[in-house]
Specification:
With 416 residues, this protein is of the alpha/beta class. It folds into 2 domains: 206 residues, 3-Layer(bba) Sandwich (FAD/NAD(P)-binding domain), CATH 3.50.50.100; 142 residues, FAD/NAD(P)-binding domain, CATH 3.50.50. It is 37% helix and 23% strand. It contains 13 helices and 24 strands. Strand 12, helix 9 and strand 13 form a beta-alpha-beta unit. The longest helix is centred in the middle third of the chain and has 20 residues. It is globular. 41% of the residues are buried.
């Protein structure tokens, strides 16, 4: 009965703005529109996601290494939307019909007048044989929990394994990809492996932690001086950097490299790239590399007026380099603000605003109270960089829910 009522409630005489995805971009768009449309009672805002919790995906590496509890990085959407004029529909998006202006979900069809696609990304496996079958990914808290539990299980098995070769494979851990996610994960895993080594009475030097990266350095595109600092820090932790090394195939118990070398391991975590959600490519919109949708300067699909695409789903070019901007949370939040402003401009009859990407700074954590990054023109490293990165997380939490989200998480984020 409740399910039937829910579907009936999606049919309304009001005009609807439907937002697909409650990640960084989608949630921010909904909250911004809630502010802008407070005097427009004839418009309704619907936010759709298959999960009812908003995850801090930029911090998933900490959950995977047991530093931060999952509940700290997961917030009920209902709590964020409390007292807001935003309706949340927990449903999986199945199909988008741009001609009929409908979105088919597991809760039925929903009509829209304006649509925002912010469905996020999925892992790009580049067609490498066996990779999707045998490697872990880090896209959700569920993924993080799987990684954490699996690594602990490797120590459980290693503790009782008498065959030295098999024991070595159990204690060999490989992170594929040396981008931001890969670097933050591998440096966080250092402390997790140390804790497990102590718990299971295994010598710390019995474990091996590798990064397989096809590029010349880790953190490709980042400031070179900061890259060098990061690499030195990683090497000092005992992390083995396998640069200019490509993975050609993965099997259940090994990773095979382009050089011909094969490494026996039971743990491969792939962070080598992302692509737009498959549903976006299948929807029929014009798209470019990694299935990211081609948009105009207002973040609107070039195919369908009134359909805005943001975050990992949008192909936005940097005017300075004419290259696609990185799929980061910072830029997704910027794009969300502009998409909301431009939708409001269309509704109110005012002029739309062109989106120009602006990166105020970037930080990458390097494990326990250590990071490197830059803000404006200043390069920062060590504890100060880590502190600034933490403050960015708190600032984001405050922006979506005020002190009621910040206060319960302050201690865990700073003193975990």
């Amino acid at each position: 009965m409740k399910e039937k009522e829910k579907q009936q409630n999606m049919t309304t005489d009001k005009k609807q703005i439907v937002i697909l995805g409650a990640g960084y971009g989608g949630l921010r768009t909904a909250l911004k529109l809630n502010q802008l449309l407070k005097h427009y009672s004839d418009w309704r805002i619907l936010l759709i996601d298959q999960y009812d919790r908003h995850q801090l995906r930029t911090e998933l590496h900490e959950a995977a290494a047991g530093r931060t509890r999952p509940d700290i990085l997961s917030i009920p959407v209902a709590r964020i939307l409390k007292n807001k004029r935003i309706e949340f529909v927990r449903a999986e998006v199945q199909h988008i019909d741009f001609t009929q202006q409908t979105v088919t979900t597991t809760k039925g069809k929903i009509t829209y007048n304006k649509l925002v696609i912010a469905l996020g990304s999925q892992t790009e496996f580049f067609g490498i044989p066996g990779l999707s079958n045998h490697a872990f990914t880090l896209n959700s808290l569920e993924d993080a929990e799987k990684i954490k539990s699996h690594i602990r299980e490797m120590f459980v098995q290693a503790e009782r394994e008498t065959d030295e070769a098999k024991r070595r494979a159990l204690l060999t851990f490989i992170v594929g990809g040396g981008g931001f996610t890969g670097v933050e994960l591998v440096t966080e895993l250092v402390n997790y492996l140390r804790r497990l080594s102590k718990q299971f009475k295994i010598a710390p030097n019995a474990t091996e932690l590798n990064v397989v990266e096809a590029g010349e350095t880790v953190l490709s595109g980042f400031d070179l001086e900061l890259v060098r600092i990061a690499q030195r820090s990683m090497e000092s932790m005992g992390i083995k950097l396998m640069l200019r090394t490509s993975c050609v195939s993965v099997e259940a118990a090994s990773i095979n490299l382009k050089s011909g070398r094969s490494i026996e391991t039971r743990t491969i975590i792939w962070t080598g790239g992302v692509r737009a959600n498959d549903l976006v490519a299948e929807a029929g919109l014009k798209y470019g590399p990694r299935s990211r949708v081609v948009v105009n300067p207002y973040l609107e699909s070039v195919d369908h007026p009134g359909v805005y695409v943001i975050g990992d789903n949008a192909l936005v070019l940097d005017s300075a380099t004419n290259r696609p901007v990185a799929p980061t949370a910072q830029l997704a939040l910027q794009q969300a603000d502009f998409a909301a402003l431009n939708i409001f401009a269309e509704i109110s009859g005012t002029k739309r605003v062109r989106y120009v990407p602006k990166v105020a700074g970037q930080f990458v954590s390097l494990g326990d109270r250590n990071a490197v990054g830059w803000v404006w023109k200043f390069k920062v490293k060590g504890f100060l960089a880590w502190l600034l990165k933490r403050m960015i997380v708190l600032r984001y939490l405050y922006s979506i829910g005020g002190l009621r989200l910040v206060v319960p998480r302050f201690w865990s984020l700073f003193f975990a």
